[in-house]
Specification:
CATH superfamily of the largest domain: Nitrogenase molybdenum iron protein domain
CATH architecture of the largest domain: 3-Layer(aba) Sandwich
Strand content: 15-25%
Family: Belongs to the histidinol dehydrogenase family.
Bound molecules: nicotinamide-adenine-dinucleotide, L-histidinol, zinc ion
CATH class of the largest domain: Alpha Beta
Largest sheet: 6 strands, parallel
Radius of gyration: 26 Å
Organism: Vicingus serpentipes
Protein name: Histidinol dehydrogenase
Number of helices: 17
EC number: 1.1.1.23
Oligomer: single chain
Helix content: 40-55%
GO biological process, one term: L-histidine biosynthetic process
Distance between the termini: 89 Å
């Protein structure tokens, strides 16, 4: 496809009746993966490491008898990472730490009635598995996004799996970032077999309690199977997406650059731009096509742009209605009335405000997490944050005075539910106190 012939779908003041078309995500070929996932899970459950080695040879085209990354490999890879890149990774790590640490809440003891104290404490999930995709780009930033909060939360075992390349290697930057942050074990295993290994455990891979991280359709289907086997997962995180809302205060060159930043992730990415007038939208489109020409990943980005939409909606109430129905992973607000749009946005994974807040900032280094719900799941899921790595345990301590205060309410409710033993647990105490 030549760039000049690229036609991005345009909609001018679309009526609600065609909104469904605008809200749709790119069509994914719905291959039924459940049989394949079940077979590999069964293989790994029964044959452990042998199944991991066999499936890695089959799907990643490399035979690795030892797939655990050694300390020596980690040390060597650190030497291969450029000094300026190491510095940049340190800046990102520090900001991600600061922002995620700020999410830790202090315990608050509440006296709900005289002598009845209740509180909640966080306990880190002891064993977590982090999946880092390996395919078309070495996403070492995802290592920071998952491992930094895991370490801050106090997770004891942080196990990372990522697919090896055909030489049986993992990108130096992934190993450097994992070691820097404090990942406890690293395995050269990807796809379904990695998720199965983390679910059941093998001779080499430890079983974990929760699995995090994005991945392709095989990884996503495997995470759903893991969930069915009793292992928690973070969320369904699919192909990247971005919605930009722009009014006359926006800079077309910036908006175009932002749209392309997510389009280059994959052919299945989707970017949408809502502008308040046609002149602005045309300027953004012109910039988009000019900048696309210069990109090394222009083929991928062009494919994504075929799934994308340029829309004019002039009324801000209508724009908000559209944003909340679309429920994007990322939302950029390049608008004058930032307060109105921020206050009225309900469904979005992460919001970027103003002309100098590119989405890439959140992908790498501002401090927020880039593992976010896609495909409309921002209606009901949060992105990865500190809460994802802990469980909340509630506590209560009731004194003699407390049970005297609360006792009769419990007795009455238990009796009404026909649960005599529940009532008795209170009655025996009240009898003792009233002697
Ligand atoms: N939403 C987010 O936060 C986010 C962030 C980064 C990446 N992503 C997404 O993650 C995905 C990364 O995918 P990827 O492919 O680059 O890497 P990946 O690591 O997810 O998948 C590679 C693995 O897939 C398995 N596989 C490949 N072909 C197979 C087949 N025919 N049968 C069985 N298994 C097979 C192999 O085992 C291989 O190791 C992309 O879709 C990208 O958009 C999302
Ligand atoms: N934008 C991606 C999430 O949708 C995350 C990422 C990693 N590296 C660059 N970007
Ligand atoms: Zn990105």
């Amino acid at each position: 496809m030549t760039i000049s012939s690229l036609k991005i779908k345009k909609y001018i003041e679309p009526k609600n009746i065609i909104w469904q078309e605008l809200l749709n995500r790119p069509e994914v070929k719905k291959e039924d993966l459940s049989q394949l996932v079940k077979e590999i899970f069964n293989d790994v459950r029964l044959n452990g490491d042998e199944a991991i080695i066999k499936n890695t040879a089959l799907f990643d085209k490399v035979k690795l008898d030892d797939f655990k990354v050694s300390d020596e490999e980690v040390r060597e890879s650190s030497k291969n990472v450029r000094l300026d890149l190491k510095q940049a990774i340190l800046v990102a790590k520090s900001n991600i730490e600061k922002f995620h640490r700020s999410q830790i809440v202090n315990t608050q003891i509440v006296e709900t009635a005289n002598g009845v104290k209740c509180w909640q404490e966080s306990r880190a999930i002891e064993k977590v598995g982090l999946y880092i995709p390996g395919g078309s780009a070495p996403l070492f930033s995802t290592v920071l996004m998952l491992a930094v909060p895991a370490v801050l939360a106090g997770c004891k075992e942080i196990v990372l799996c990522t697919p090896p390349n055909k030489e049986g290697k993992i990108a130096d930057e992934i190993l450097y970032a994992a070691d820097l942050v404090g990942v406890t074990q690293i395995f050269k295993v990807g796809g379904i077999q990695a998720i199965a290994g983390l679910t059941y455990g093998t001779e080499t891979i430890p079983k974990v309690y929760k699995i995090f991280g994005p991945g392709n359709q095989y990884v996503t289907a495997a995470k759903m199977e893991a969930f069915g086997c009793g292992v928690a997962i973070d969320m369904p995180a699919g192909p990247s997406e971005l919605l930009v809302v722009a009014d006359d205060s926006a800079v077309p060159k910036f908006v175009a650059a932002d749209l392309l930043s997510q389009a280059e992730h994959g052919a299945d990415s989707q970017v949408v731009c809502v502008a308040t007038n046609k002149i602005l939208l045309d300027d953004i489109e012109k910039e988009l096509l000019a900048q696309l020409e210069e990109l090394p990943r222009k083929e991928i980005a062009s494919q994504a742009l075929l799934n994308s939409k340029l829309i004019v909606i002039s009324a801000k109430e209508k724009i908000i209605e559209f944003v909340n129905e679309y429920a994007p992973e990322h939302l950029i607000l390049a608008v004058e009335d930032e307060v109105y749009f921020c206050e009225n946005t309900i469904n979005a994974g992460s919001i970027f405000i103003g002309n100098y807040t590119p989405e890439s900032a959140g992908d790498y280094a501002s401090g927020t997490n880039h593992t976010l719900p896609t495909n409309g799941f921002s209606r009901s899921f949060s992105g990865v944050n500190m809460d994802a790595f802990v469980k909340k345990v509630t506590f209560q301590k009731i004194t003699k005075e407390g049970i005297l205060n609360l006792g009769s309410s419990i007795e009455l409710m238990a009796e009404a539910e026909l649960l005599q033993a529940h009532k008795n647990a209170v009655t025996v105490r009240l009898n003792e106190l009233n002697k």
